[in-house]
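Retro notes - structure team

What went well: the batch runner handled both jobs without manual restarts.
What didn't: labels got mixed up in the shared folder, which is why I'm recording both outputs here explicitly, each with its sequence directly above its tokens.

Job 1
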Amino acid sequence: MAPENQLHLTSHHRLPLAAEAARRQSWSNTNWKTRRPAVQLHHHQYQAPQTGNPVAPSQRLILLTSQICQKVGKHLGMRSATRNPNTSSLAPASGNCYSGATVHLAAASTSVTCGQPLEHYLRSTKHVTPVCRQLSGRVNRALETSLQATCCCLQAYCLPVLNHMGVMTYVKRTFFSHQRDILLPAIQGVWTQQQAAHIAMLQTEGRPLVLGGDGRADSPGHCAKFGTYTTMELESNVVLDLQLVQSNECGGSYHMELEGLKRMVAFFEDILEIGTLVTDRHRQIAKWIRENMPYTKHLYDIWHVAKSVGKKLKAICKLKGCEDLKAWQQSIINNLYWAVVSSTQDDAELIVDKWKSAERHVLNLHRGHGGKFPTCAHKRLQGRAHKKKWIKPSSLSAVKLEKLVTDKMLCKDIGKLSAVHQTSKVEGFHSLILQFAPKSYVYSYTAMLCRTLLAGLHYNENASRHTATTKAGEQRFKIRYPKYKAGGHVVKKILVEATFSYVDDLMREVVDLCKAPSADRPVQLEEPPTLSSAMEKPDKAEAIKAHASRFKTK
């Protein structure tokens, strides 16, 4: 039997016009400070169709149509639902039901009473699936509150909608309290478990690690607060370690990447052997590795060097008298990649000689390069390649190009470029972090760390996705026109849809934390002092008294 404080409406039981007019008038006279209707629906008494019991005239009712329910359910993260033809209500689809993901807030034939706590509807047998009822009966009040917090996970969307409808909900302080005590520790626990599993697998293989490392700042510019150093095992394509550094821990944002590297090396020191480390050309990191990791081979990523060379070539082409070099920009960059990939990793001298041959090739000189690469490897040029305009010897373009190609520091770095492993996957992971921790928002230390760990869990699960295929079995591709190509195109593979199995692990961890007594829960992460903690805080009254505007005021 339905509770007396609920009114069931079907297609045969609709409000009279007078009641509908009174309902609209009530919302037009809403007190927006409390978000409660100022006029109550007490013009008529209605009979509940199943029980025949009259509904109290002083009760204020909010009628939820199926469209509103679908919109609210979408914001609450409900899973796909199907309509039950017998009850004209939404029935949840099959699947796990942790945290109330398939909870019915309201069906098409149900109305919600103003002033009733949301917990009332979570406990109701009408609105909660059997799995949720069983789960709710086994655990304590903290888990029931956690179900509410997880169900209304989108704070910015769900709570205003429910408050507007007059449904009592929890406040922001309660939401962040559950996040601090349950959700964030659950993320840290699942990450620790999966990290230990990956390390155990690598220990079983017994080979030296091939790591790729790079740093990421939490905001654009040179005054970032947080820096994340990502360490990825490049052969297995797994994020192994994530180190979060706050700028006041290492003397400034410029030193955060080096501090993250130091913490990573200390973490793997007694666990695994680091055989190769691929990074960008960060001078601090290169010096520290050279002095403290003599048995580790340190290599550079090709893309970072090619990007630097491309910027310098672009600047040269803008000079007066160097316009003819513009046609050779992409060819010079291609030659850099070919010089590294076509040579053995240990023969740095051959790599550098191949790179230097580009300076003579653009002058239409293909022999007598010197060193280990005296002659160009291409065949006799024909067609389009032969018709390209050659650079004149002793011209300004030739002088500028020779100075760039033979730069000692650049040639030294090109000899250390990695021919096999690159950090492009690390850069891709940093792009993924933007989906979990956008740079336009500010987070606390623990929240930033857990959001980064959550991105690591998602990447590790979906890193090995294969290319999607058509019904005929052909691989699918897409064409993109990025800005840096200046009108050029890029062909990319279309991957299969991502999976989210790690969410089930997180929900099981949440359930375990809710069942555990407060004393047995993990200790909260110790955060470094805030950036303003070292500053002298003035007295508020004195600061206001001393405040003066730079502009004239009336």
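Job 2
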Amino acid sequence: MKRFRYFVFYFGIPALFVLVLLNALAYKQHIVTVVKSKDAEISQNFAQLHRLSTTVITKINETQKRCSSEKSSNSYSNGELMNISDQEKLVSEAKKNISDEYNNSKKYEQTASDSTLTPKDSLEYCMRFLSNPVNGLQSDILGEKSYQPVPDHTSDENILALLEDGCETFGKRFFFMTSEENFQYVTKEERNYPIAYSIVTHRQLNQLSMLLGAIYRTQNLYCIHVDAKSNQTLRNGVKLISQCFPNIFLSSKTERVIYASFSRLQADVNCMRDLLAVPKSMYNWNHCINLCGQDFPVSTNYEIVQQLKALKGKNTVAGTRELNDIARLRTDFVYRVINVTNERNETIEVDSKTFEKHRPPPYNMTVIKNLAYNTLTRKFLQWALVDSKEGADLLNWSSVTHTPDEHFWGMLNAYPGAPGGSSYVSWWQVARAVMWKNNKANDICHGYWVRGVCVLGAGDLPWIMKVPQMFVNKFDVTYDVTPVTCIRTFLKQKTIEYNSTLNNNKKPLQLPWQMLDG
């Protein structure tokens, strides 16, 4: 027992003391590390606070100088001190400016190049696409190793916020020709020849705004049909646009548009009837052009007027009487919209063929396959959609067919006695050019293919600017905004230089002689 006590006293107690001492030293080192870390964090926060306060003071000084220069008649100009309320306003404004700058920087970090701000819509830059092949552009052409598409992902919410800031801001952003300085570029001939537009859209408020800005003139009339399935932000945005411009309005009836179904034709019919309802005393238009949100003009408004005048009161509906088996199925059977589940396990609506045979067309009409986008005269639309029994009966017959917008107009246009119509049917077209995949002459698409149609890229600009038609399809600015901004640059330049380069304008296509006699 004595030996045990001796061992504990001489060895156990010192060992315990050493252990406690080591733990104390370790805890002290931990405390030092934590303190140093917190000290570094405090120093960093203090530096950030210092930078922020410096920026605030700078903004306050700038705002105060601006207020002094703009309000030279107030008490500030007499050297009087600002009261506390004025100082608080300036601080608030400075903070708002800092917040706006921060939000803008974040927006540009998250969003690709803005189409209206990028320097790559300059005339010099865009001209290089026309003079060089763009199958992988070389560095000596654009100063880059190879061209990459420039997507513009500006959201509907951002455009809506821009509209809420004011109509003038929105109009300048998208180059609407509304200011007095732009009126000098609109000829008397254009002002005396208003055009009606029927536009169907379902997405991308940004791209729709680009299209409207490119075709907008105060003498024209625009009806926009927004798909009932579209998000509320898009609908609100188009509504605000219509409030900014008195000659732009939404269709009075809205359709839930299903691809290739009757609802697509009905959407256009709704807008066209609304356009007809506007009194001639307000907008005495002679031709209507129907478009979708992914179209874009390749002719100036002056050139479009010249082309429409060259039609001599005729409609232009490209088509053929020669139907293949697929085209015949579209009208030989009854079609219904049904719900199906796609590969992503989502329920979607599709226009589906039934086993029910469809009755023949009314009035012994011949089925004609036509393009969906055309130029139609006011007299023709009044006859087809309002006055005639033939138009009403054919519309009813078409309501259970597939893609009726691709036979309705052609069948009525070829009907005897149709205003501006013709029995001559061909693929001759002035309204819109499309690069089809089955066209051997255009076997290269510099964008990507969708349902056999090229979504055009910057490399397609040489083809785009050579087509004789007034509009081109199809564009997607979320893939590549460059072709749209460059076309807009070319058209703006042609419009501004109209007086000096009159001979440089696109010559209108002349009617085939077969159409002159109806």
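One thing worth noting from job 2: The chain has a mean pLDDT of 81.
We'll revisit the folder naming next retro.
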